[in-house]
């Protein structure tokens, strides 16, 4: 009966998942691409081993990085019949152990209080060393302290370690080290600890107290670590302490989804796993059950260009779902046009039956959300903001709106609106110069910068004031008008929604998925961000785009605006976007007229393999309409007639044969055998001109005509 239950766990697994589940005891590394069923594989491995009697569920500790992922793991294990497994985050597991052993480790004293946030103490520590820190600056200093502690860096070593890691520090490194030192002193004097202290306490309890170590290792004998590419040195130190030299360890991860290195996370432990564990079993999961082959093909194309350490473990995914729509690549004149088009498409998807909660708009930085909040509101599309506050609910934006209202009484009314906004925001500490270092301070700067951009857009639409029955005059908008407009937008966007389109940053979208995904703002300077200075930082930006693409199950939109605001400076598309052929794309109107604007808004056609559905990038492959490795169904006899016809036409025109049609185009014709003009022009390399010159002849040949029938004594003239 037990054997039957363990066999049932294997039912429905693909060959690679089965290999992961049935791998022998010992070190196992599962390299699992996006959508390949990694959670199913690791929970099935635990259940199979437990139900077959290899291990006891109560001796298993499975750790991951979010409470949601841990809860999902526990739920699946329960359904598989493996009750009693401990599935927790690193922090929850460490906290449980430290609390349990506190009386023994602390000589009967109570465990110190655990800080919810470092910000308050960091603010006091900064003041102690003569540094004034607002909330954003304190958050950045707290983040830097977290990085140091997670990387096992002490205050005295911070300056050297930060330099080696090329940290973009919020203040001069020596000053950060002073704040770090003062923070540690304040913690001790207040009798509190932070989350990193708790992990260190768990390590210390096991390493320095043999009785504690023996009890912990007696309880936990088999370990599973999810998202192993996100482990930091402190967490790895705790894992090593738990293991105590044993090797019954299963890790699962995807180096191509390493996007949190700024927090101290490193994929080095995943990359080096086979070297650290010489007898390790390595299994690769590459069958993607989440996304259509079209989405998978584009994801493969983006990550195939990756370089660096993580690229050594790059996986080429294979889409398992039926073919779906091609990804859309759109170009717009400016960001408002882009946002309005996204909102209109969201409205259309919802009207066609896609639930709003199955749609996501993903961006690089939170400050980008404002334009989409506005556009979705005006299109009557409900939305929720994931992992951040709505734009007008952010503390810095609320403070700025108060400052702008106050400035209406002190700034002369004739001052141009953008200049008045800059002057008012300068009074609350914003500077139009380069943004400050540090993530939180930079995010605050970007949010206020977005207000300046809004003022520029608003100033470009002067108010029309009637001066008579048939006359009117334009009146420049004032700072007072602008504050009223901001209040109106804030009131519109404060309406609570239970179910809506998700607005989220690429970082906060990790681990989630939707039917339809919009990846917006894919321009140089935004993705990759201008703050990505090193090769490693640029590669992490590429992985962010890869993560974004792989969130989509079926429908994917990628877009960028040629300028941030109407008439603004031109920008280039992100270097990570594949070099797609734009000659075959159809144009979609997005406001405005003229060839230049139509070219900017052109919809780029992404061509997929007609056999396997993968995205085709190489010119010859796009002409064939299939991957070079996919089987050919060429009509050899038709191919020979096409070759002979091409030779005669080229001779008559006195041009090389490839000028008429390339070899790849002839093969595509012989494989696809078009029966109508619409099917003929769909083949890459055949445009309206060649359709007019050769279309009738080619269609006749495909229909069975002989070469002599279509060009007996005929000569072909090319019009100039």
Automatic annotation (TrEMBL):
<keyword id="KW-0347">Helicase</keyword>
<dbReference type="Pfam" id="PF13361">
    <property type="entry name" value="UvrD_C"/>
</dbReference>
<dbReference type="GO" id="GO:0003677">
    <property type="term" value="F:DNA binding"/>
</dbReference>
<dbReference type="InterPro" id="IPR002121">
    <property type="entry name" value="HRDC_dom"/>
</dbReference>
<dbReference type="Pfam" id="PF00580">
    <property type="entry name" value="UvrD-helicase"/>
</dbReference>
<keyword id="KW-0547">Nucleotide-binding</keyword>
<feature type="domain" description="UvrD-like helicase C-terminal">
    <location>
        <begin position="293"/>
        <end position="554"/>
    </location>
</feature>
<dbReference type="InterPro" id="IPR014016">
    <property type="entry name" value="UvrD-like_ATP-bd"/>
</dbReference>
<dbReference type="GO" id="GO:0000725">
    <property type="term" value="P:recombinational repair"/>
</dbReference>
<dbReference type="InterPro" id="IPR013986">
    <property type="entry name" value="DExx_box_DNA_helicase_dom_sf"/>
</dbReference>
<dbReference type="GO" id="GO:0016887">
    <property type="term" value="F:ATP hydrolysis activity"/>
</dbReference>
<dbReference type="InterPro" id="IPR000212">
    <property type="entry name" value="DNA_helicase_UvrD/REP"/>
</dbReference>
<dbReference type="GO" id="GO:0005524">
    <property type="term" value="F:ATP binding"/>
</dbReference>
<feature type="region of interest" description="Disordered">
    <location>
        <begin position="566"/>
        <end position="601"/>
    </location>
</feature>
<protein>
    <recommendedName>
        <fullName>DNA 3'-5' helicase</fullName>
        <ecNumber>5.6.2.4</ecNumber>
    </recommendedName>
</protein>
<feature type="domain" description="HRDC">
    <location>
        <begin position="632"/>
        <end position="712"/>
    </location>
</feature>
<comment type="similarity">
    <text>Belongs to the helicase family. UvrD subfamily.</text>
</comment>
<dbReference type="GO" id="GO:0043138">
    <property type="term" value="F:3'-5' DNA helicase activity"/>
</dbReference>
<keyword id="KW-0067">ATP-binding</keyword>
<dbReference type="InterPro" id="IPR014017">
    <property type="entry name" value="DNA_helicase_UvrD-like_C"/>
</dbReference>
<keyword id="KW-0378">Hydrolase</keyword>
<keyword id="KW-0413">Isomerase</keyword>
<dbReference type="InterPro" id="IPR027417">
    <property type="entry name" value="P-loop_NTPase"/>
</dbReference>
<feature type="binding site">
    <location>
        <begin position="32"/>
        <end position="39"/>
    </location>
    <ligand>
        <name>ATP</name>
    </ligand>
</feature>
<feature type="domain" description="UvrD-like helicase ATP-binding">
    <location>
        <begin position="11"/>
        <end position="292"/>
    </location>
</feature>
<dbReference type="GO" id="GO:0005829">
    <property type="term" value="C:cytosol"/>
</dbReference>
<dbReference type="InterPro" id="IPR010997">
    <property type="entry name" value="HRDC-like_sf"/>
</dbReference>
<dbReference type="GO" id="GO:0033202">
    <property type="term" value="C:DNA helicase complex"/>
</dbReference>
<dbReference type="InterPro" id="IPR044876">
    <property type="entry name" value="HRDC_dom_sf"/>
</dbReference>
<dbReference type="Pfam" id="PF00570">
    <property type="entry name" value="HRDC"/>
</dbReference>
